[in-house]
Write a structure and sequence with these properties.
The complex is a heterodimer. By secondary structure, chain A is mainly α. Chain A has 9 helices and 2 strands, in the order E-H-H-H-H-H-H-H-H-H-E. Chain A has 2 domains: 22-75, no CATH class; 82-190, AhpD-like (Up-down Bundle). By secondary structure, chain B is mainly α. The chains are: A mainly alpha, B mainly alpha.
Chain lengths: 202, 200
Amino acid sequence: MADSVLVPPDHTVPVAFTRAQLDWLPWLEPLMAEALTDRHMASLVDAARVKSPYFRLLARDPDALEARTRTDKDIFYNPDAGLPRAERELAAAATSRSNGCIYCASVHARHAATYSKREADVQRLLDDGVSADLGERWNAIVAASVALTATPITFGPEHVDRLRRSGLDDLAIADVIHAAAFFNWANRLMLSLGEPAAAAHA
Amino acid sequence: MPGTDADVIDGLVGIASGSPLDAIRARRPEARIHAQASYRALFAPEVPGDVTAQERFAVGSFVTGLHGETAIAAFYAAGLAASGASAALREAVDAAIAEARAQGPYGSYPAGPLSREDTAGPVYRVAADTRRMLGPRLAAAFEHMHLLVFHPRDAEPVRLQALLDAGWSTTDIVTLSQIAAFLSFQIRVVAGLRTLAGRS
């Protein structure tokens, strides 16, 4: 039988950026959990991801998925100096806000708020967009993320200088670059292979 | 030529062993190793599946060309040539890049309060002459790659149906999507680190 696109079940479409938990509904058929081989399971990296239709869809190309996931984890979770976790999440949220990925923005705004304890500032980024005034250090990180998200890319020496003036060393600036770059990867998959839905049991 | 084990990001940024950026990348060793593993998985896969090396590099050339990053685009164009692509196909890729350039991100949100942020921009349709040279399968892929590069928030299921109709399978579409999405990452890491190096 030829492949076909999936029609998602009835759901509530989120129409604003939010820190609430969202679901994600695939437009293409994920692999069935029962049909996953050892190679597919290994590509998920975390076995719990077998519950996620997003990761079971990406598992159709397991080598690409595994390398994607291991890249992601080091950029965001490596605790060795550089940019604090809260600000790596801020760069991810700002990138997602700029590209318009409501799902990715919800997850990483939640993380940014959790790690920074600056819920109001994170919410302002979601509500008012990437020009919201979040204080100079966060403004510099958001502006760098947005410039990296533009196509063609508009990130230039002035962004590096502004980050340095805000106290970031070169490892931290490299972390901003990687966090924003990675969410240009993640946003495109999330936006184009399915859609967000308000959680049934919010 | 592309497809060897030399680290592509290091090569494109010009990171020499022992340089400050080499030391910075070494602090995130898994990201460095697996960014390269992602490149290999997508452009020199052990299990190629139904997406040929020529198709992978044609798409890679198109996506990097759309970003206007000359050195990176040249790297993927070299990969396309090495894959045995005809001169006609390589010309078609260049023609498509010239036709399709835009500035992103733009696009629309679901109707509601975000509609005031909707930003109009081109929806790419491959021109008739270029389509003839690319063939229907690559032409459909390029139209989708343009969406992913410049206005991913406009994605909808009908765009995936167009790929299925052109002969791409569900698994092929996952691979194509990963190529566009991964390159969006790789290009930004290269451009960002190059700018950082230039400010040292």
